Backbone:
């Protein structure tokens, strides 16, 4: 089983739509989780950390389910500028480095 | 904006040449990483470091080597470049504290012809 698995998409949605991405991870001992955003041919940038109690940042909501070992990202009121690849990130088994999922591609159209 | 820099941004080089990809950060981070990413594919960890004189291999086997003589500098070297090394190489750094985010440089896009 891969350490981090994501539905690659692409998700094609109209502006204003709500879209949700899920991610599963294999390391039950992992304590830190993140969502990164990567634009085409650019470096990944942190979108938000994922906390045990769930957290929200504007239109973005992240949730963590430790029992099922999955993380979710909800984007409300999608904007054209949200078009990007969203990367689910967890610490590896040894807790030494960040492991990235393959990413889910979102395309928002007008 | 993150203070982590990679040079060169783009490199086209012939087979058999020795190359060094530079990565520097001014945030005082102890942990540094090298990831390799092919177009449309996931990032693969190839090297990381906890600090000066510490280097470890990542999850993806790589023919490259790294060194960490100074905290701020984490260069990656390929002794003899091959077309199979063509890829994007991304350097990142983070604090030593567990659970902190990593900041990425803009990457080096390497093409070996």
Residues:
């Amino acid at each position: 089983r891969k350490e981090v698995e994501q539905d690659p998409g692409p998700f094609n949605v109209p502006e204003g739509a709500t879209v949700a991405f899920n991610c599963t991870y294999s390391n039950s001992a992992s304590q830190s989780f993140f969502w990164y955003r990567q634009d085409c041919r650019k470096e990944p940038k942190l979108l938000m950390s994922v906390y045990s109690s769930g957290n929200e940042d504007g239109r973005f909501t992240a949730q963590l389910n430790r029992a099922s070992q999955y993380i979710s990202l909800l984007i409300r009121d999608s904007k054209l500028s949200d078009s990007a690849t969203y990367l689910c990130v967890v610490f590896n088994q040894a807790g030494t480095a960040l492991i990235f999922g393959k990413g889910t591609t979102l395309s928002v159209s007008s | 904006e993150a203070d982590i820099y990679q040079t060169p941004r783009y490199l086209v080089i012939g087979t058999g040449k020795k190359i060094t990809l530079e990565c520097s950060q001014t945030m005082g981070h102890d942990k540094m990483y090298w990831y390799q990413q092919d177009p449309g594919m996931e990032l693969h960890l190839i090297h990381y470091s906890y600090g000066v004189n510490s280097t470890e291999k990542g999850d993806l086997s790589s023919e490259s080597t790294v060194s960490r003589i100074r905290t701020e500098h984490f260069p990656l070297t390929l002794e003899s470049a091959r077309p199979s090394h063509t890829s994007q190489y991304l350097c990142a750094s983070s604090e030593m504290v567990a659970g902190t985010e990593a900041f990425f440089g803009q990457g080096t896009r390497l093409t070996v012809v």
